[in-house]
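G.,

No rush on this.
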Amino acid sequence: MPLESQLFSYRELINEIISHFDKKTSGSLFLFAKDNMLIRIILDQGRIIAMACGNNRGMDVIPKIQSITSCRLRVSMNKTLKEGDALPSTQDIINQLQSKSELNPSNANGPIKNITSDQIERALNIIESELIEFLGPMGSIVWEEHMEEMGKLVSADGFESLINQLAEEIGNTEKINTFKKNIKSKISNI
């Protein structure tokens, strides 16, 4: 199966993992994140039997997954990776992923509020303005590139993913947190 072109936010990724659990999928989930990070989750009838990321195996992969702000996903029916160390139940793993650490910069300022259709343009203007504030004139170019890549945004998850991707362009953790906090504060007031 070809690589999905859609970028998944962290929340969308967890929902996708849950859907494969519910469908009792057998095979491999490949998560392709920025910085060439590849995570592989092996499922046997919906049960997570192994996880790998570089030299990390088993529960050591959880922090790697939690560090994802957005990723692409590919599903393969080939398991090939052998069952690893005994893992907790799949539901326990999903619960741990859903309780992503508040210390992670991608989640430091809480989720973005739901955006109604009449607020989309205003929210986009806020995000673009903040990006230019942080990146200067290059912010306009970065904005155009990301908007072409993202397409039409209609959900809070889509906005969350956009904000996280733009934040990665900033690079500095302190500035990233301030960028996200400013945007979420301004959007909550529209």
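When you get to it, here's the other one too:
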Amino acid sequence: MCGCIVDEEYYYKNVIPTIKGLKRKTFRKDVVFHRYKICQRMGDFSILKSETNVEAFIRKFSQYIAESDIQLLISAINKTDYYSTYGQRRIDDYLPKDIYSIIITFIIERFVLFLKQHKSDGKIIAESRGKKEDQTIQYWYSLLLHNGTRFIHGWQFRDVLPNAIEFRKKSENIEGLQISDWIASPISKIIEYPDMSKDTHGEWELYKEKIWLGKNAPARGQVGFKVFPKNLGRKLLNMPLKSEKDSN
């Protein structure tokens, strides 16, 4: 999962008009980006016509992301390692059992640390996965605000975040969510194949510079890239490994 941190004013003045301009210039209308459909040249994206054009577009949009004033938070769980370590039991008294909710918790933890570092507050906009799924996430988010985690107190979450996550549908064409989706695909391949054999478009070198690094990183500070339970995020960033016991 990937989250994008962006200043609200910059988002409305730069990110939205730039991406909408790119959409209209390339696809002749304000489409909703679907990376898979773009790669397959499906529907509105058939205008790309060839793999060469797809490659050029991917590089162009990825380069824009790399040059924009945004930072990334990335979280993933290796299910094989997770279940072999924890089985069906909870990691601790604070984290939920649901893997998707755990991943979101890791992202939100890092967002709180980012906001505290910058003495700011923020809001969370997430793509809707359906009414039931959204309610589940909203429930765990309310518990997070109340109880906190093993590393961050509840009041620290409440101090910088609103009472609810704002869920938006893909059809609403939210540029920030499309950036997150766009990055998640190549990052997932990098996590699965850390030898970079699947980084076919060379995106890792662009995106790794956008990942948030907390105060005192890399030696002992927090980083915005967590692959649980084996700290692969730090390894991919060429940072010293920390035990899961001592690191969130």
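Strands lie at 2-5, 71-77, 125-127, 166-168, 225-228. The chain has two domains: 7-67, 71-236.

Enjoy the weekend,
O.
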